[in-house]
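Extended Data, panel c. Modelled sequence:
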Amino acid sequence: MKNYADISLIEYLKKYFGFNFFKGNQEVIIRSVLSGHDTFVLMPTGGGKSLCYQLPAMIMEGTAIIISPLIALMKNQVDAMRGFTEEEGIAHFLNSSLNKTQITRVKEDILSGHTKMLYVAPESLTKEENVNFFKQLKISFYAVDEAHCISEWGHDFRPEYRRIRTIIAQIGMAPIIALTATATPKVQLDIQKNLDMLDANVFKSSFNRTNLYYEIRPKGDTLKEIIKFIKANDGKSGIVYCLSRKTVEEIAELLKINGIKALPYHAGMDSTTRSNNQDSFLLEDVDVIVATIAFGMGIDKPDVRFVIHYNIPKSLEGYYQETGRAGRDGGEGQCILFYDYKDIQKLEKFMQGKPLSEQEIGKQLLMETVSYAESSICRRKLLLHYFGEEYNIENCENCDNCLMPKVQFEGSEYLKLVLETILAVKERFKAEYIVQIISGTTNSTIKSYEHDDLDLFGEGSEKSPRFWSSIIRKALIEEFINKDIENYGLLYLTEKGHQFMENPYPIMVTQDREFDENDDDDNNHIGGGKGGACDEELLAMLKHECKSVAKKLNLPPFVIFQDPSLEDMATQYPITIDELKNCQGVGEGKARKYGKTFVELIKTYVEEKEIIRPQDMVVKSIVNKSINKVFIIQSIDKKIDFADICRGKDMDILSLLDEIESIVNSGTKLNIDYYIDEVLDDDKRDDIFDFFRNEAELGTLDEAMEALGNDYDEEEIRLVRIKFMSELAN
């Protein structure tokens, strides 16, 4: 195998994709693939998973075989790859949507050596004629995308995925990279065992999507709420997920009647209509797609701004993946789920008739989702805990439970009762059974085990079963107990739990929300949004041009240029192709392929408005400050640490604060919360903010330092004063 150890990946990244830096673990993952190692990648939606196989495929000799379960996603990714280069045959897909003539063309391109990436469905991979064809190829590596489909414990199990390793052995061995956005530790192990890659290099990225806002709303006048929400977010792309095809059709029609550009999308539609509806969404001819949860949507659209669940998904993995379609570009992403326990009962009915073990797995996954929906604990904390990741921040400030906190109470006695009950039944039962014993529920199972004779039976009958479910959730989060996943979720005490039993201590528990009645709360909180420092008028013109070019080429606008690229253009004002290729996400190929009309538009705009561009400024002291301001505004928008901004412009922190104050005082709104949260505790921040809002007369630094005293230093006060001025004055 060729040695790729010494190549500069950044050069290739810039050349093919137009980026100047990697995200998270991308670089080490790509080097693992280039070195010929089997590689397992666990990376949340929006983390840049696809690049981990796309870039090495472009670099390595031969063709990469990418196994993907969704035809829609294949087409989407092939279109995107062709947009990055001038070579049409660089990427192809092979699936049931192609006719014989198209298949022949694909195979000719591959045999000629033009194709670096071939996307195949698992069904296509296993066809004998395709296996024989693949044997003729030089295969660089195999990529198994959506690898959770391999596992029965995954949310989207596909039996044909379990044959992948056998087929690879027939075609010819090459390194494997398996990738998934949602896998619990058990699912990960199942994937690695099935693909025979237990020795693989494993890379796990954080599941924390900080830009996503999570909210659960009780079902009431739900359709009215959905229409109101979408109209309040007019012009933004969104997805509404439903449980049945009939509901999809009804809601799509209702949205259209109410003046919302929406289309349905589900497995029962003919493939042409479904494909056309998907393209209309990607091309932004419609704003909203209404889709079934079961079918899912292979949509790689970076600017989906909201995901609404009309019905609850059947697993937290499914929920996480579906909400993950929002805000993939790092911008605003609102995730609203409408919850009613009747939906759970419907899903349970769907499981009837399946093998008992499958029903047990399905019910356990469903109960995890119920726990999430009914809990008053931080949504982010619960999700991350489910995927085996600890989140130690008490308030994420971007979910309903953190922004609208519920009542807390001291719960050590309740926790102790739960732990005593688990021990009393020899750690051999699930959460639901423990709740029944504590609540005093009599049934045939409890009688057969004679657990109704236990001293603890009915000890907590004054509280509801939901209350005791919330206490068990708290015990799991605090790691007093754990679930034996191999035995369908039987509860057992951890070492920490035994220690708590010996020496109990006070623990605050949040009162769970009851979902029996509809709330009147019409809160339409918008979470995760971010401001920009770009020229909004020019940005609107660039977006219009992007849509126009995309329409002519019958491509989604983001294939031409994504929003961050357009925003960078509207900040930097590039008027030549060479200047354009230095904008974020614009490589040489894209600049040459699509850039001409964009730089012409910007050039005309700059001349008409007599704009002084950052790159046109003469190097004088006053101008240097202007250049600094552009750099600082862009850096803060990207949430770059202040120390790194200082290093970039060779200044100290106080000089940086001078510049930021100048920017804010001139009327520009900046959000520096990300830095304040790092260096200041909440109480200090609130005290200083309240002083400026309620007590300050002049609003000066001196006045604040004198009034607040020695507990607050100059930097802390200046930071909060900047926040205050930005939020309330601008």
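The radius of gyration is 28 Å. This feature is highlighted in the accompanying rendering.
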